[in-house]
Amino acid sequence: MQNTIKRKGQIDLSMIYKVFGGVLFIYLFLGFMVIPCINTLTSIFTAKDRAGNTDPLAVIRFFLAGSMPSFVWNSLKLAICLVITVNVVGISIVLLTEYFDIKGAKILRIGYMTTLIYSGVALVTGYQFLYDGNGIMTKWLVEMFPGMNKQWFSGFNAVLFTMTFACTSNHALFLRNAIRGIDYNTVEAARNLGAKPFKVLFKVVMPTLLPTLFSLTVMTFITGLCAMSAPTLLGYNSINPEIVRLAGSTTADEAFPQARAALLSVILALFTIVLLLFLNHYEHKGHYLSVSKTKAKLVKQKIQNPAANVLAHIYAYVLFIIYMTPVVMIILFAFQNWSAVRTKTLDLGGWTLSNFFGVENYSYTRSNGKVTTRVGAISGVFSNEKTVGGIRLSFILSALAAALACVIVVIAVNYIFKFRGKHKSKRRAALVEGCLLFPWLLPTILICYSFRIFFNNDVWYVFGQNLYYKENVRLLIIIAYTVVKLPFALRMVKAAFYAIDEELEDAARNLGASRLVTFLRVKLPIVLPSVLAVFALNFNALFTEYDMGATFQSSEGTTYAMVIQSMCNEEGRDGMNMNASGRRCASTVFIMIVSGLILYLVYGVGSRDLGERLAIREKRRKRLQKIKGKLGMGHASAEPAEQQETV
Fold it and tell me: Do 240 and 231 contact (CB within 8 A), yes or no?
């Protein structure tokens, strides 16, 4: 009787957990994904004319009659051109380092993958540092070609050039893995049948890469369509910068700006949804696979034609120079004094750490002859209050959001796999997965804009709080960061859960462990490396995130990316902030170090299996033993070991 009562109590308690979890999930999904976006959509058709009457078609008429279609066309033009340029450069860098036998391929690969350690606003400002009107490369080019336009690096051409080399990081990761997975037996068979090297490349190799290339093409198109940092900083009128501008405008400035921003966001969302559906349809059609039972490792192909071989090497190293020049110059100037950075003149004898830690006063003479001193006007990254505040804020917000996304996804994926074999509960699990993938259907700017507009009032859904008011905006940024990163985290963590052997869970349950104990003691340790990798990658992306930072920018919500952007805008005004360019270079170096360390921990140390770790440990032990032997410490350490062995 007591056992029966206990079982009923357990069932009731589990039902309470399920109901509470279900209600909380529905509350969060509706309140922070669906309702804000619906509010944005309805705002288009609730615009009022000058008389105060609602005119559902007013915004659409204004859109068709005004200059707004030009923003859509500019984004489409950028996306289409990027698909061509990024694929050409991306495919070529992978072929040059992984398929063809090019001298110095390892060094070339390092240069091509530098965009992995700095991107977004840091990368764009790096290119500006080189190519803008006062840039280093522009100065050299003007000296060689005196009639050249110094302001050449702006607008569409500058954005296309910058984003072409910034967006090849996906090719460097995913296409490289795809080409390494090619079966060399098929290549060798084609060569034995008399096929020439380039025919083998286009007829045998490229078809196996088509699925990856198609996915990369769609990703590149969406990236170009939703570009934010490059168009904003380089002066190109595309959709995202215009949405952010309209979001901060009022009806006193121009006609219904919020509704126009909402319409542009919806247009962007429609493009994204169509492309993702098209990609999903293509993936379900199937793709090319190798039919060899025993795969052979790909052997690099030599280019037999001497002229083609020379041209390939020249092309490879020209690309290497383009990739490496911003990185090298930024690192060099990060250790120059403030005057050398501002004048873009490299002084090899003037190395300093002032851009990182220094504080100096700046004195200048006004037009009336009076000398004015600005205390602390020359300051480094870690001695400037505004910059340190941006770093601290971005670090905390990014870490909290990345951790929250991982926690939500781990719980959700465990729930999804719990009902993997139960037909009646499959729909429930699929519904949970679909809700977490929902943000992938919408561009980031639409989600952030919807949050900014919907929560910039005393909203009943969050108990009458204004989440965009003062310090509350930080909570709103964390929520937006988390929502945007949920789909990526879900796909990665779900893949990790497939590696769990069901027999381990069954064994734990047979030993009397509850579901919670089984999850904490058996499942979680297995997937923890993947979860930590997802956390690291999400943190890496959010730490210097620009799009959301620009949308939520306020006095209490200025993230690190927005601090970097404002450095040059405010440099030198009334003798203040004289070292903004130097601090920007030092900030970029700091971002490279943080990103590089995280990538090393994820793809270096974190990707090693147990055997590799033991081999590395043994190698270190032998190296240490050799060093001790050279220092005369070997006999002292060997004697106790022999005694222990004898005992």
Answer: yes
